[in-house]
């Protein structure tokens, strides 16, 4: 049986060993009463490592690097402050590789901190709003410490926990924080319109994070029998399921089920997912598996990027010399869509950055997160560039057409293709 904790009796110095790696659920799945205690008590533990997902809270700050090595697959959210301070080390790998790395011991997880929903009538604790890479971590962690939050939604998934799998439990009752993306910009609304035109009735969709994916879903209210197979889901998925647009009825696998790894949304999706067996949460091993994705007919993968060059190479990681994005799952999903019968691999992004610089570039200012050999369809507010089956010269033409008009001339010159030489 697990040891029952009180908030003032959590002693991480007796749980975490020097040299351990600790991890927890990302975004709103972070068990804040536990993570805050861990950081407060770091000096009593000694040097250890924390693996972070996308962070919604500034629990981990640069000054905490005096005892903790911070590692993450991404520089999004609150991780950006760590990256700017040089206190974040990046694990540059595909999302689909996380389970194997944890299982092989190449990236072991020693202590796992979870936020769980209370047990059901069968004694099963739910992983609530984050399952994904927590499932392989759970299989190999030496110690499992759980915040059991009375207000966390109980969700269906491939893995539940019982008392004998938990070492320590901290009971709480707190409202889950909400992820707010703000209103979509005019450019994002135009991108959403172009992208929505690529999604036909009966398609199964994967979406990334932010206001743009939510805006795209908002343009699909006239579609029928859409499906969802995604790493994340947010509030608009709940809206479209409730109004009958998302039924998953035509999915070639997991028929009738919305499949996801984590919720990144607010009260709407939290309440809708609670005890809703039409939504099933799965491990990263399943949500990002290339063979699983290839088996979904008409799979539409929609992701974003920092910048795309004129040949279709994608940088999704670094902007202005700072690690702001991730390798993440984009290439897993893009390749899955390429293999899917009738699949549509999409990268959607505004044509210019916040300071006015072009995000369609002659050469990347960061690493190649997705090679040009995997290029599919690129969408900006100025249109759609389908690069599949095109030569480099043809790709330049298509990409210039969707760049911001103010930057097209300079891009054309930097590409080394004078207008007079083009057919």
Automatic annotation (TrEMBL):
Domain Acetyl-CoA hydrolase/transferase N-terminal: start-end pairs: 11-170
Entries under Pfam families matching the protein: AcetylCoA_hyd_C (PF13336), AcetylCoA_hydro (PF02550)
Key words of the record: Hydrolase, Transferase
UniProt cross-references to InterPro entries, sorted A to Z: AcetylCoA_hyd_C, AcetylCoA_hyd_C_sf, ActCoA_hydro, ActCoA_hydro_N, NagB/RpiA_transferase-like
MF-aspect GO terms: acetate CoA-transferase activity; hydrolase activity
Gene Ontology BP annotations: acetate metabolic process
Protein name stated in the entry: Acetyl-CoA hydrolase/transferase
Family: Belongs to the acetyl-CoA hydrolase/transferase family.
Organism the protein comes from: Burkholderia orbicola (strain MC0-3)
Domain Acetyl-CoA hydrolase/transferase C-terminal positions: 265-413
């Amino acid at each position: 049986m697990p040891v029952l904790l009180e908030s003032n009796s959590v002693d991480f110095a007796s749980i975490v060993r020097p040299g351990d790696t600790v991890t927890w659920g990302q975004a709103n799945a972070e068990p804040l009463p536990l993570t805050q205690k861990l950081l407060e008590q770091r000096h009593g533990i000694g040097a250890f490592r924390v693996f972070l997902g996308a962070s919604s809270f500034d629990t981990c700050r640069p000054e905490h690097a005096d005892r903790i090595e911070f590692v993450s697959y991404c520089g999004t959210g609150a991780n950006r402050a760590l990256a700017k301070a040089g206190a974040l080390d990046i694990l540059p790998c595909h999302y689909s590789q996380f389970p194997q790395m944890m299982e092989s011991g190449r990236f072991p997880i020693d202590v796992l901190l979870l936020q769980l929903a209370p047990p059901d009538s069968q004694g099963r604790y739910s992983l609530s709003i984050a399952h994904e890479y927590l499932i392989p971590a759970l299989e190999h962690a030496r110690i499992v410490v759980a915040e059991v939050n009375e207000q966390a939604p109980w969700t269906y998934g491939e893995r539940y926990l019982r008392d004998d799998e938990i070492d320590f439990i901290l009971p709480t009752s707190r409202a889950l924080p909400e992820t707010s993306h703000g209103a979509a910009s005019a450019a994002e609304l135009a991108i959403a319109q172009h992208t929505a035109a690529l999604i036909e009735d009966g398609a199964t969709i994967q979406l990334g994070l932010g206001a743009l994916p939510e805006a795209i879903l908002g343009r699909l209210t006239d579609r029928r029998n859409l499906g969802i197979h995604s790493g994340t889901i947010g509030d608009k998925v709940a809206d479209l399921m409730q109004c009958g647009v998302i039924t998953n009825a035509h999915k070639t696998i997991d028929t009738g089920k919305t499949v996801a790894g984590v919720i990144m949304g607010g009260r709407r999706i939290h309440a809708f997912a609670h005890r809703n067996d039409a939504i099933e949460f799965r491990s990263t091993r399943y949500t990002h598996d290339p063979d699983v994705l290839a088996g979904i007919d008409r799979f539409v993968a929609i992701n974003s990027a920092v910048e795309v060059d004129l040949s279709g190479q994608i940088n999704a990681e670094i902007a202005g010399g700072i690690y702001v994005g991730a390798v993440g799952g984009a290439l897993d999903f893009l390749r899955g869509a390429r293999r899917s019968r009738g699949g549509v691999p999409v990268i959607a992004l505004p044509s210019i950055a916040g300071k006015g610089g072009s995000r369609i570039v002659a050469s990347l200012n960061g690493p190649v997160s997705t090679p040009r050999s995997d290029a599919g369809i690129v969408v900006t507010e100025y249109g759609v560039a389908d690069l599949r089956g095109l030569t480099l010269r043809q790709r330049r033409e298509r990409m210039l057409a969707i760049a911001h008009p103010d930057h097209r001339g300079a891009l054309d010159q930097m590409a080394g293709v004078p207008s007079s030489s083009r057919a």
